[in-house]
Amino acid sequence: MGEPLLLAQAITIPTSMAVLAYLVVGLVIGVESMGVPLPGETTLIAAALIASQQHELKIEWVIAAAAIGAIVGDSIGYFIGRKAGRRLFERLGRRFHHFSRDRIVRAEKYFHKYGVWTVFFGRFVALLRIFAGPMAGMLRMHYPRFLAANAAGGIAWATTIGLVAYKIGDNADTIFGRLSVVALAVLAAAAVAVYVVRKVRARRRTPGTTADEPAGVAVPAVESADV
After folding, report:
1. What is the spatial distance between Cα 76 and Cα 1, in angstroms, rounded to a whole number?
2. Smallest Cα–Cα separation from 157: which of 137, 198, 185, 129?
3. Cα distance between residue 99 and residue 20, in whole Å
4. For 5, phi and psi rounded to 5 degrees?
5. Cα 221 from Cα 198, distance rounded (Å)
6. CA torsion, points 19, 22, 27, 29, in degrees to nearest 10?
7. Would you say the C-alpha torsion 60, 63, 69, 70 has a positive or negative sign?
8. SS3 of 98-154
9. Cα–Cα nearest to 173, from 67, 51, 23, 41
10. Is the distance from CB of 91 to CB of 80 less than 8 angstroms?
11. Spatial distance between the Cα atoms of 71 and 30, rounded to a whole number of angstroms
12. Whether the predicted model's global pTM rises above the 0.85 cut
């Protein structure tokens, strides 16, 4: 039996307290999206399970609270990252292992390769979900593009996680834990595919080279997240 189900069974939400429960869902997810390692996805799953079992909570409002928290939290994180810059991550790295140098480097590579797509799909990956807003701000991603990807990703994530948890019950946390790993694997596979395609194109554009001879031309730099 998963942690979200145990949490859901331990909590009884009076109808009069439903609004407070929605606020808690939005707040936890919002703070996580700002870059603080809180259990945002677990909170969403637990709220969806409560909605499926007790009916004092409405799944529509649980999803809405989660989506709003994700969008607002990411936006606040964006402006924090934009103002504080790399110093923010260096300072956090000295205090929290979630912000270790290795993790920051990996997240930054994804941003340089995929730009706004990292913001959208990163919502489904635990590591990127925490970094997305502050990292996009630090890299000075164009805010309207960030906001569009942030909103789309937040709504898609909240709807998918909320509805599936509402329908499948106590297996939700296990399934979504695996989904996060799969999503990260897909991003890694896409990174390899992009690298191979660009390498092949670079060779084809270079005259006088063969498959056995190095092209002598560096792979074109990846696009900036601002572009």
Report:
1. 35
2. 129
3. 31
4. -70, -40
5. 10
6. 180
7. negative
8. HHCHHHHHHHHHHHHHHCHHHHHHHCCCHHHHHHHHHHHHHCCCCHHHHHHHHHHHH
9. 41
10. no
11. 8
12. no
* CA dist., res. 41 & res. 67, Å (int): 11
The answer to whether the beta carbons of residues 165 and 172 sit under 8 Å apart is: yes
CB 34 within 8 A of CB 73: yes
The secondary structure of 19-78 as a DSSP string is: HHHHHHHHHHHHHHHTT----HHHHHHHHHHHHHHH-SS-HHHHHHHHHHHHHHHHHHHH
Q: Encoding tokens for residue 9?
A: 């069974």
The answer to whether the beta carbons of residues 44 and 165 sit under 8 Å apart is: yes
State the Cα–Cα distance between residues 84 and 70, nearest whole angstrom. 21
pLDDT in tens, the chain (227 residues): 455 554 544 455 555 578 888 999 999 999 999 988 888 998 998 889 888 877 778 899 999 999 999 999 999 999 998 888 777 777 766 666 666 777 777 777 878 788 888 889 889 887 788 888 988 898 889 999 999 999 999 999 999 999 988 887 655 555 555 544 444 455 456 656 666 776 677 777 765 544 444 444 444 444 444 43
Say if residues 32 and 91 touch (Cβ distance below 8 Å): no
Q: In this structure, what token pair is assigned to residue 160?
A: 């998918």
Query: Closest by alpha carbon to 83, among 29, 27, 119, 35?
Result: 35
CA distance 122 to 101: 18
